[in-house]
């Protein structure tokens, strides 16, 4: 038997120590999955008529925030709060407005913060407002970047849809929205997942996962799926899932009396609906709901492919997964088809966080906000928490289901809202108030503001405080 000298033993020990040290100390990756117009209509969130097995599987092993609220009921400003951790402008060009400000005067975005701390940052699909993160007439102008300094790569495959603008409202096999009234509001074409743009986004996401997982550097990969955004288009095999499914009746389907943030569903009504009226024709309304559900199942299938690829690479053991809906969507509630109101249906969306190091899965009904995600990911990855974010970390929820939430603030251009565990309060820019009691059977159909002046004053002060810290930009957009 050959003896080993002490000096050689020390060398072998140090060699083994440093060989395993990088793997032990490597920071956790982040996989952020953004889904457009996704109300919390998932089986794991209580919608038993929906087929969403892949997202439900993520919720089962992660942590589901059942009372997550976005900060604005529209794609652009909601994504602004996600990606900056700050309250900001109410318009869809919020991030483009920010991009016009000098670098030294801008706080870092979430991907920029991770990039500055050693992460490779990649976006695929619709993560910021424009798929691919560029401006210009067709959203592919390299000189007009929606989020400067954020991404090492920001990608949007377009194939037969020609350009990112074409994919945003694209239907099967390269159909581009030229004139809205000529494009059908829903469609279910025969074919595989790749006949709609989300299939392309998913394929590119799989490619990026394969590439990023082979590198030593931790990654922050954001994937933005477009469906179930209008028009409701997805492969027919997903529509077939709902052939025999009974859909629940619409709650409070009437147009509200009195002053509210109700609107005429303009985004929805620009599409071809064959002369039918969704608020009067129950069969047509049901068909719309089926096609919306079809798009959820299509998006769910893409999520499944992405999570499966993550597992195949082995990176799942070191990757935090966040699934986020950018806002809700009315399916006839309050006689609205779309978002853009300050009612519950526009602002309530799903949020799921999976941390491979979390002690156990779980869920909570405590209220949280979208802009809480930025500080949460910093804590879960052991990055410094920036002092400029407005949100609160949710990391304690993953180890203690009894943590308390907080009120949620939201806004459109001419009104603001606060939501706590009992009330929704809406304050219009001229001072008119709406107050709804969610513990009553009337919910958001009975404005009780006049009868509760003390609550109106209390909520008004809370809104004034939030308004005072919102980002503002003096630009032309």
UniProtKB/TrEMBL annotation:
UniProt lineage: Bacteria, Pseudomonadati, Bacteroidota, Cytophagia, Cytophagales
Q: Where is the Sulfatase N-terminal domain?
A: 28-382
> Which organism was this protein described from?
Jiulongibacter sediminis
Which keywords does this Swiss-Prot/TrEMBL entry list? Calcium, Hydrolase, Metal-binding, Signal
For molecular function, the Gene Ontology terms on record are: iduronate-2-sulfatase activity; metal ion binding
Task: State the InterPro entries in the record.
Answer: Alkaline_phosphatase_core_sf (IPR017850), IDS (IPR035874), Sulfatase_CS (IPR024607), Sulfatase_N (IPR000917)
Respond yes or no to whether keyword Electron transport is given for this record. Answer: no
User: What is this protein identified as?
Assistant: Iduronate-2-sulfatase
**PROSITE patterns from the UniProt entry:** PROKAR_LIPOPROTEIN, SULFATASE_1
Q: Name one GO cellular component term.
A: cytoplasm
Family affiliation:
Belongs to the sulfatase family.
């Amino acid at each position: 038997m050959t003896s080993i000298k002490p000096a050689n033993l020390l060398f072998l020990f140090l060699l083994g120590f440093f060989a395993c040290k990088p793997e032990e100390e490597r920071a956790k990756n982040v996989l952020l999955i953004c889904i457009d117009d996704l109300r919390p209509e998932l089986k794991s969130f209580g919608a038993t008529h929906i087929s969403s097995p892949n997202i439900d599987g993520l919720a089962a092993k992660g942590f589901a925030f059942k009372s997550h609220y976005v900060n604005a009921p529209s794609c652009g400003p909601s994504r602004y709060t996600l990606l900056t951790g700050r309250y900001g402008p109410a318009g869809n060009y919020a991030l483009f407005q920010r991009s016009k400000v000098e670098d030294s005067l801008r706080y870092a975005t979430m991907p920029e913060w991770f990039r500055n701390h050693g992460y490779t940052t990649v976006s695929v699909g619709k993560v910021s407002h424009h798929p691919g993160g560029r401006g210009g007439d067709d959203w592919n102008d390299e000189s007009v970047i929606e989020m400067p300094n954020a991404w090492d790569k920001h990608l949007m495959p377009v194939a037969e849809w020609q350009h990112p603008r074409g994919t945003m409202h694209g239907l099967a096999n390269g159909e581009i929205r030229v004139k809205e009234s000529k494009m059908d509001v829903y469609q279910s074409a025969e074919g595989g997942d790749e006949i709609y743009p989300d299939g392309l986004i998913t394929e590119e996401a799989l490619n990026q996962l394969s590439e990023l997982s082979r590198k030593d550097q931790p990654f922050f990969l954001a994937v933005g799926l477009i469906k179930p955004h209008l028009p409701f288009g997805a492969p027919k095999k997903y529509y077939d899932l709902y052939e025999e499914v009974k859909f629940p009746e619409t709650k409070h389907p009437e147009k509200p009396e009195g002053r509210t943030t109700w609107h005429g569903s303009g985004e929805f009504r620009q599409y071809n609906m064959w002369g039918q009226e969704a608020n009067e024709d129950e069969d047509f309304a049901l068909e719309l709901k089926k096609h919306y559900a079809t798009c959820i199942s299509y998006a769910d299938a893409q999520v499944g492919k992405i999570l499966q690829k993550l597992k195949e690479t082995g990176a799942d053991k070191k990757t935090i997964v966040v699934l986020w809906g950018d806002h809700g969507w009315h399916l006839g509630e309050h006689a609205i088809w779309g978002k853009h109101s300050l009612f519950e249906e526009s602002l309530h969306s799903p949020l799921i966080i999976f941390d491979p190091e979390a002690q156990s899965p779980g869920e909570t009904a405590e209220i949280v906000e979208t802009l809480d995600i930025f500080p949460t990911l910093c804590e879960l990855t052991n990055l410094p928490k920036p002092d400029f974010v407005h949100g609160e970390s949710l990391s304690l929820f993953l180890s203690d289901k009894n943590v308390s939430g907080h009120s949620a603030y939201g806004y459109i251009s001419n009104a603001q809202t606060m939501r706590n565990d009992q009330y929704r309060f809406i304050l219009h820019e001229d001072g008119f108030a709406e107050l709804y009691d969610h513990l009553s059977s009337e919910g958001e159909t009975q404005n009780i503001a006049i009868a509760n002046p003390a609550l109106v004053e209390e909520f008004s002060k809370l809104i004034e405080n939030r308004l005072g810290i919102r980002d503002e930009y003096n630009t032309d957009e």
